[in-house]
Each structure stands twice: as C-alpha cells, then as structure tokens.
Amino acid sequence: MTNLMGTILYGCGISLFASFGIQRVEAKKPNILFIMTDQQRYDMLSCTGNRYVNTPSLDRLAERGVRFERNYCANPVSMPSRFAMVTGRFAGEIGYTNNSTKPDTLRVLPVVRESSVGNLFRDAGYETIYSGYPGFYCGRTNIADYGFTQNGTDYYDGPANFAESFFAGYNPKEDKPFFLYLSFMNPHDICYGAGFDPRFPEKLRPHQIAATQKYIDLRKTLSEEEYRSQIPPVPANMEPNGVYAEMKEIGSGSRNWTEEQWDFYRWMYCRLVEDVEKQIGRILTALANSGLADNTVVVFTSDHGEMGQSHGLVFKSQLLEEATRTPLLIAGPGMQKGVVDSKNLTCGIDLVPTLCDLAGISIPKGLSGKSLKPVLTGQTDRIPRDYIIVESSFGYQINDGRYKYTAFTRGDKEETLMDISSDPGEISDKSADPIYVTVKTRLRNLLMKDLKRITQNTSVSQ
C-alpha cells in the first residue's frame, strides 16, 4: 500500500511538474511596439537636458526603461540604416551604402526574407503590421517580403491613427501577440530648407510645402522675445574644418545662409521634433489605455541624425556625431526603469538580436549586432563589445568609444582620426600626428578586418 501511494504521489508530482513546465513554455509572449522617426538627432529629447525641445511622452518612456546614450546608426542615410535595423545586417553586405529608388531585388529580397525581423516574428506566431513611411529598399512595392502587412502609408498622422484603432480592437485573450512597426517621416521635413530651399514652394509636393509653410506662419505669431528664447544656440563646432570643409565640394549639405536663416532652421527643427512627438504621445497613451503596456516591449529610435549647422552643414550622410548618433529608448516587462546607459556603444544592428532575445526567438546566425537584453534586464552593465562600425557612401568608420577612425572612399582625403573624448566637436584631425600612430594603426587594422567580412561579396567602393 505504501509503495502504491508512493507511486501515485510520484506520478502526480511528475504530472504537476510537467504541467508547470508546459505553463512556462506557453507563457504569453511579449508584444512589440517599434516606433521610428526620421532624422532625429540623439540630443533631441528634453530628457537629455535639451531645453529647446519639449518631449514629455518620450521622457516618460525613458523613465519606464533604459535610454542608451551612446547609440549610433549603422549608416547616416535612411535606407541603409533602416535595412540594418530590420535585418541586423549592414547594407554594405548587399552592396549598398546609400539610398536607392531602384535597388537590385535579387540582392535585397533574399536577405530580408531570411532575416527581416518581420519574418522572424511572423514565423514565431506574431501578427506583424507596418504603418507609415516604407523607407526600405524595395519597401514601397515589397513590404510583404520584409514580413509585414502594410496598413497605410500616411507617415504624418497615419501611424498614430492606426495604433489607436488597433489597440482599441485588440483582444489579448484571443488575438496573436503583435509586432507593430510604426514609421514617421518627421523631423525629416527640415530637409526642405525651412523655406530657403530653392524648390520652395513651386517645385515641392503639397505636404512638403505645408510642413514648411506652417512654421513660417507660426513664426509670424511670436514676439521677437518669444522666438529668440526658443532658438537653440549656434553649435560650438559650426566652422567647417579639414576633411569636412572638403565635403562641401562633393555635394554635401552645405548652405551659404545668413545668421537669421540659420536661426530659423535650428528653430524649425525643434518644432518638427515636437510635432512628431505629439503623434508618438497619442500612440503611447492608446497603449496605456488598452491595458497592454505591461506585456509590451516599446522601442523608440531614429534612422539617423541631423547636422544642424555643426561644421557648417545640414542634413545627414556625414560620419560625424550629429549625423550618426541617434536616440534609443527601450522599455518593457522585466526591464530596468529610469536607467541612462552611458557605458555601452550600441548600434542599429543590435535591434534584431535584442528583440529576438526578449521574445525568446532564436537569433539568426552571422549577425554583427549584440543583444542588449542583459543590460535591459540588469543582468550586467556591459555588453561584450570593443567597438562599432558605421558605414556611409563617403567611407567607413570604426569607433571604440574614445577614438573614431574613418577611411574615406570619396574625395581627396584618405583618413581621419578623432578623439571624441577630448574633442567632442571633432575639430582636430589626429591622423597625421605621430603621437597617435599606434592608435590609428590599431583601429585601421580592426576596421579593414571587419570590412573584409562585411563587403566580401561586393566592392568597398560602392
């Protein structure tokens, strides 16, 4: 009898253990809400101490999670940067380092079908939906190849309108876990020159005209004192120097503007950031009101930065801090709250492995990025990384956190070496200084080793 009872209890124990095991396996997967802006520089958040922009919704998101202070895009131009964020691979791996309206589908589509985050999550049982600006290679015609169902291409109000409707109708007990990728255009509309673009207004599209005209009109409603109080100061590194002065000769964002025009440009950029932040606020409010926030990982980032008069330049493309550093906020279940990570170098290529790791999805092999989950959850304060690589149509750069070595593929200048610890404005090129020869050689060798891997199937000159 005793043996029989023991056998029964033992069997019940196995059943209970198995039952608990099944519960662990079937634990509810976290939802993913991925929010992207276009051309938002790393310091364009009021939580960074910037008093010239007001971003309350993103500040609250930062309080709920981790803000990565030393985050860089993989390429300071939209399409290659977005390709890296959605696949975990450099666009240089498929032979592209710039935007392309007619990319080779035979290069692009096999890679995105294999490793796009949309396909990875869809195959893991997620509903994967994209709303807004389809700024990928082949994105306008082949978003399904990226693993997403397209829901609208309005990239101003559209993503917020869709999110509010989606969250209101979502049933967590019946519906699949979701991966929503919401992509906004702004503050990219600063590219239309704050009214100083020679195409304005006759040669621009209606929405491009409206974006600029709105702020020309708003400026007229402000007193001179109000307006001046809202203008960020002139950057300390506004004067062109060295290789970046030469960049003007190869079609970069140089402008011969008056002081008044520059002031209006910097002011308008801040207002565009606030405009898109209000749309993001709508999304985060709808998420909170739906009761889904506790099981949703929220990611906010941008594809690249904006020069904003630094080095006398506007727009993007440059391998400089203002163009390559972007905001990265991540919050969600089981993560640290209110943490500002200033120790780790992070990059757009880290997002695929991070999101897969957070969702319990196998990370594709061969990716260059690192999972940030151990930092997000407080398991460690360091990820195993000594440097990051950033590529562009001008060249390739390695950044070890203090020194940035750049090998150029365009123009007369071959290389630069910047010490961003002592020279954060990147004014003084150390590449010809014999004191730095050991540093330069070390970084150049590491860069060439990585480039051989990244560009093994294509030409670096592309």
Automatic annotation (TrEMBL):
The modification 3-oxoalanine (Ser) is found at S78. Residues 30-361 form the Sulfatase N-terminal domain. The conversion to 3-oxoalanine (also known as C-formylglycine, FGly), of a serine or cysteine residue in prokaryotes and of a cysteine residue in eukaryotes, is critical for catalytic activity. GO terms for molecular function: arylsulfatase activity; glucuronate-2-sulfatase activity. InterPro entries: Alkaline_phosphatase_core_sf, GAG-degrading_sulfatase, Sulfatase_N. This is Arylsulfatase. It comes from Bacteroides stercoris.
